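Same chain as my last thread, 179 residues:
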Amino acid sequence: RPGAGGVGAEVRALGERTGGWAVAAALLARPSPIRLPSSTTVGYDNVEIFFDYVSAEVVSRLSAVAREALVRLAFARRITADSVEVLAPSISFAALVQEMDRVALPFSRDGEGAIRLHDLIRAFLRERLVGSLGKDERAHLLSASARLLASDGHLLEAALLCEQAEAWETLSSLVSAHA
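reply #2:
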């Protein structure tokens, strides 16, 4: 009911208290596994609507530098000061976290202070933002991400990124280094 009281006022108040995330939660209320084009499984039938929401209401509010950094960090399992320095040196880790807090981008922190993006946000970054990069830029990003993943002990995941990038020399050097 619209008006000063009732459900309409409660919905508006909830939206204000949560920075809009209640809307996103409502968009995802009907679970049903689907397969995205990159073979990433996300368990929601409204994932594209959610991605539209994240694009319009969250990511668009990030500075260009923070948005670019998140694209560069889309494949990192954990975002640390070191991974930001390697993959997105145009912003500091502290500034990136501050930006993410400002726009209410969901992430968690581990005991060492590293952050982990929510899986749906990582899927959004990979599908919408990384997917819009040119072939060469995307291949460079995947190769750099693969090197970082391999250095953290995630060789299989690194190998898959090398395969997507068709970065056979990078794959060969990673396998040789970890043999």
